[in-house]
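Researcher: I'm comparing several assemblies side by side, and this is the next one on my list. It has 234 residues spread over two chains. Same procedure as the others: predict the full complex and return the structure.
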Amino acid sequence: DIVMTQSPDSLAVSLGERATINCKSSQSVLYSSNNKNYFAWYQQKPGQPPKLLIYWASTRQSGVPDRFSGSGSETDFTLTISSLQAEDVAVYYCQQYYNIPRTFGQGTRVEIK
Amino acid sequence: EVQLLESGGGLVQPGGSLRLSCAASGLIFSSYVMNWVRQAPGKGLEWVSGISGSDGSAYYADSVKGRFTISRDNSKNTLYLQMNSLRAEDTAIYYCAKGGSTVTTGLFDYWGQGTLVTVSS
């Protein structure tokens, strides 16, 4: 199974400041035949189901604010919130869909400093 | 608008069985892979099982293989999860999640609100 490891486990950022979350996979999730990373980011607010933010490592889901961006390739990925808003307080998860079983990172809790 | 509504959760004793359902609307149900993802209280996300839309091929996490069975009825736009030999560690919120049009596109772009399964004596 591909193990997804996020860092940090939690972070506190001031409103309007940048938040950066990292995710490392235990093997590459880049499919060479189409040059796509089979990798996604999700946001989960308290009491709600997860919401897809980013897929193919850097493509924003429809309706997701452009302050959210994803980058990285193969085994190392980053989710950046360029200017943290109060509504961004949540737990963020990375996920690989390169193979089965689909696996998630342990989650990163983002709070307001 | 895609909507997924889970039902069937509840309290069950260890060793017991439960059947979850997920009613889908706002999509061509048979065109998509459908999944179950669970979240133990206060914990992270764990993919449980997925089933393709076309040929019904099913996939399972090792933790549930042999105990859980995923199925779908495309005529009723409904996904199911039959859970047998339940254990305390199966206690979780179970989410129904829509996948891509093929098994290879294994992201989850729509989620239901979830149904809570509690395994306890």
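Model: For your comparison table: The longest strand of chain B covers residues 18-25.
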